Amino acid sequence: MWSAFYMREFIILYLFPGLLSYPVPNYFYYITPMVFMGFLLYERMYARRLPFWKNIELVFKVCSYSVVLIIGVFFVTGIMKDMSRILVALVWVTSFTYLVVTQYALKRLLLYFGLWQKPVVIVGAGKTAELLVQAFADDPGMGYKVAGVIEDHYQERPLAHQYPLWGSFSDVKEAVARSGVQDVMVAAPGLAREQLLDLVYKIQPHVSNLIVVPNLFGIPLANLEAETVANQQALLLRIKNNLARGYNRLFKYTFDIISTILGGLIVLPVAGIIAISIYIDSPGPIFLSIVGWV
Question: Among its keywords, does the record have Signal (predicted)?
Answer without folding.
Answer: no
